[in-house]
Amino acid sequence: MPEDESLGALVAQASHQISTLVRSEIELAKAELRFDAKRVGMAAGLFGAAAFIAHLCLILASFTIAYGLVALGLWTWVAFLIVTIFYLLVAVAMSFIGYRRLKGLAGMKRTARSLKGLASGPEEGKTTAAAPATSTPAPPSPPYTGPTAGQVGAHRESISDGT
Questions:
Q1: How far is Cα 43 from Cα 36, in angstroms, rounded to an integer?
Q2: SS3 138
Q3: Does residue 163 carry a pLDDT above 50?
C-alpha cells in the first residue's frame, strides 16, 4: 500500500518506472526508424531508376529533335550542333542561376552567434578575439538549469544486462 512505503522507496520505484518507460520509448523509436529507413531506401532506389530512365528519354528526345531538323532540310551536323548548343545554353543558364542563389547565402549567422556566446563563457561583457571590438554583445541568455552531460543517465545500469 502506498501509505506504508517510505519516500525513498517511492522515489526509487518512480525512478525505475521512468527508466523502463524511457528504454521502451527508445526501442520503439529504433523500430520505427528501421521501418522508415527501409521505406526511404526503397524510395531512393525508385527515384534513382526514374531519373535514369528520364535521362535516357532526354537523350532520345535530343536525337528526335535533331533528326526533325534534318527532315526540315538542315544538314545533319548543323541539326546536331543546334541541339548541342541549346543544351549548353540551358546548362549555362542553370549554372548562373545556381551561382546567384549560392552568392546570396548569408551563412549560419545564428550558429556563429551561438558559438561566440559559448566561447565567451560567463564573461558576457568581454569580446573574444574572433569577434570584432565594434560588434554589439548578444543579449544574455537565461542560465541552463538542467542536468549536465555527465549527470544524464549516470545512475542507470547498462541496457545489455538482460532487460
A1: 10
A2: coil
A3: no
